[in-house]
From TrEMBL:
It comes from Chryseobacterium arachidis. It is a multi-pass membrane protein. The keyword Manganese does not apply. GO terms for cellular component: plasma membrane. This is ABC3 transporter permease C-terminal domain-containing protein.
């Protein structure tokens, strides 16, 4: 009865150890799906700006990014590409004419089209005659529809209809006023700004301030393409250089790093329990041999191979270990299914566990079989001199 109780405790411990280690591996994959995975193929975007302090407030040369800053950013191993924003140096405003009676001052920015998440070609995103193509943040359209339009009794606008509307863009360059037709050609989820073609913007800036051609370029903000927005090294370097970015992205990064730390701690605990169980198993097998020392000696004298005896015991244990692994993975697979179906997953998680986890059913028992067999056999030969 005592042996049965000890066996139950032993295999329950193994079951817990496998649950801890294997579930941590699956949760690691789930976390990467929810928060983003760090790899050479991953693309995450952050907008960097410099933190405003009493020392740099109002000083563009200190608040902006110069060529030296850009060069340093490109050397960060966490960053794949850097795209500086060009900002307007001239006055600009817009009005909706008779259709939408509004007036507003405008702030334009220009960016390399490769960095913009709008499906446009260079041909589509360039100024033609007096028509300026514009890309705005999707949040700006939502702000108009659900805030400004509702409060002011103005018509709400769908995305498709917004692309058909033309607004008057009034630009003052070198004390000369000119009116263009502005037409929205796309919406951006990545960039919160009003974007116009960069070449056009830069040419107007030079007309307004010709001295810019001979001065070092300074960019108010930069868009960076990174491998992992949750990289602790990236966040650390940002703090060192007083760079700021989208707080929601950084908040997700901190959650991800803390989650991974907890998963590593749980996995280490699981490995420790597994190692402890292995030690108990080896001790348990040794006790079995000690209890049957006379029987083993007789079998050895009759020509029965000690290695065969050890192999049989190790094989029996490995089969039991395989059964425990199957139960553990079945438990984890059930949990993964319900987790993927829950609102927490947001449709990003797989209904099944990683197929590679199922290989543990073969790999772990086989490795343990050879480990236990070799360990017990050496002990048997050394201690009993048979």
């Amino acid at each position: 009865m005592k042996k049965i109780f000890n066996s139950i405790i032993l295999y329950a411990g193994l079951f817990i150890a496998f649950i801890l280690v294997l579930s941590c591996l699956q949760l690691y994959e789930n976390a990467n799906r929810l928060f983003g995975n760090k790899s050479s193929d991953s693309n995450y975007w952050l907008t960097f700006s410099k933190k405003i302090t009493p020392d740099n407030i109002g000083r563009k040369e200190l608040l902006g990014f110069n060529e030296n800053d850009i060069a340093k950013l490109k050397k960060w191993e966490e960053i794949k590409n850097v795209y500086p924003f060009s900002a307007n140096e001239f006055k600009a405003s817009a009005n909706g004419g008779d259709f939408i009676p509004f007036y507003t001052d405008l702030y334009f920015e220009g960016l390399d089209l490769k960095a913009i998440d709008a499906p446009l070609t260079e041909e589509e995103f360039q100024v033609k005659g007096d028509e300026i193509p514009i890309i705005i943040s999707r949040e700006y359209l939502n702000l108009y529809n659900y805030g400004f339009a509702l409060n002011q009794g103005l018509p709400q606008i769908s995305e498709d209809f917004a692309k058909k509307i033309e607004v008057n863009i009034n630009i003052t360059v070198n004390k000369q006023n000119k009116t263009y037709k502005g037409r929205m050609v796309g919406l951006s989820d990545r960039i919160h700004s009003v974007l116009i073609p960069k070449k056009f913007l830069d040419s107007l800036n030079l007309v307004e301030k010709p001295q810019l051609a001979n001065q070092p370029k300074i960019y108010n903000r930069v868009l960076v393409q990174v491998k992992d927005s949750g990289d602790e090294g990236l966040i650390s370097k940002m703090k060192e250089n007083n760079y700021e970015s989208n707080q929601e992205s950084l908040r997700s990064a901190k959650i991800k790093s803390k989650l991974f730390l907890v998963l590593k701690a749980i996995a280490v605990l699981g490995i420790f329990i597994f190692a402890l169980c292995l030690y108990i198993i080896v001790s348990f097998i040794k006790i079995q041999f000690l209890e049957k020392q006379e029987e083993v000696s007789i079998k050895n004298s009759l020509g029965y191979s000690p290695k065969k005896m050890v192999s049989d015991i190790s094989k029996r244990f490995s089969i039991n270990l395989m059964i425990v692994l199957i139960l553990s993975l079945a438990f984890i697979a059930t949990g993964q299914y319900f987790l993927a179906k829950s609102n927490v997953s947001n449709g990003l998680l797989s209904m099944s566990i990683n197929p590679l986890l199922w290989t543990a059913i073969i790999i772990i028992p086989v490795l343990v079989y050879f480990f236990v067999k070799e360990l017990i056999y050496r002990w048997l030969i050394k201690s009993w001199k048979i």
